[in-house]
Design goal:
- By secondary structure, the chain is mainly α.
- The chain is 80% helix and 0% strand.
- The chain contains 14 helices and no strands.
- The protein is elongated and about 70 Å long.
- It starts with a helix and ends with a helix.
Length: 261
């Protein structure tokens, strides 16, 4: 009977109704359960808190889980996710490296670490991590596009283009397709082919109209081809989107401090 009760509570919790299940689940934990059941409870609570953006409580839950099972991967992975949401890059990196110290073959953590290194301008380190992903058999669009960006930023366009073409042969989301076109546009712009760059960047913008980096790159290409009015318009849109993103980040920080606000 207790197993049935626990399973029912876990389903409700994972659907986000943590207020209704938090106290009963903690009572079950206090009474004593198997390690497997305790893991299920920690996991359900963490998912429920994250689903409802109660990041502080999610972090506390994951901390307790990790303290009980220091070698467990999931609590570290989800703590990295929380760090990512609040733009705590050092914390996010620390969690991924802790996971890889336990399981060097945890490919998603390695890919996310590579993304983080790339986005914090540690491009050569990122390239090495993406290469390790490929060596581990993770030939995914995210890895191919990330590695191509590293090669472009390292002035190795001849290595970037084949990776982007390989990515285009895979099934891509709209954002991934936009990223490929963005990289091709940047390579064309770097080589002085600004009209060609504009074609790729226009297509990228149609697929991802709210990506500030695409709008800014297209603004720069318009300026180089003499279309100053459109360049200013795109630059202003890009700046508005960046400002909105910063505001969302501020709100997320507040949610971590005051989860019930």
């Amino acid at each position: 009977k207790e197993d049935i009760e626990r399973q029912a509570l876990l389903v409700v919790t994972q659907n986000g109704d943590v207020d209704a299940t938090d106290a009963p689940l903690k009572k079950i934990m206090i009474r004593g359960v198997s390690d497997e059941a305790a893991e299920e409870i920690y996991e359900a609570l963490a998912i429920g808190y994250l689903k409802t953006y109660r990041l502080k409580e999610a972090w506390e839950c994951l901390d307790s889980w990790s303290g009980w099972q220091p070698q467990a991967i999931f609590p570290k992975f989800w703590r990295a996710d929380i760090c990512h949401r609040i733009n705590n890059r050092p914390g996010e990196e620390r969690e991924y490296r802790a996971i890889l110290a336990i399981d060097p073959m945890h490919v998603e953590s390695r890919r996310r670490l590579a993304d983080l290194l790339k986005d914090t301008s540690r491009v050569e380190e990122a390239r090495q991590e993406y290469d390790r992903c490929l060596q581990g058999g993770q030939v995914t669009p995210g890895v191919l596009i990330g590695l191509a960006e590293c090669h472009r930023r390292l002035a190795q366009a001849e290595s970037a283009v084949p990776l982007l073409k390989q990515a285009l042969d895979q099934e891509l989301t709209a954002d991934q397709h936009a990223s490929v076109l963005f990289e091709l546009g940047q390579i064309a712009a770097d080589e002085g082919r600004f009209h060609e760059a504009m074609t790729s960047l226009e297509e990228a913008m149609q697929l991802a109209p709210y990506q500030a980096s695409i709008l800014y790159a297209l603004s720069q290409a318009c300026a180089r081809t003499g279309d100053e009015a459109r360049s200013r318009q795109l630059a202003e849109r890009s700046e508005r989107i960046r400002s909105q993103s910063l505001r969302v980040e501020e709100i997320t920080h507040q949610l971590l401090k005051t989860p019930r606000n």
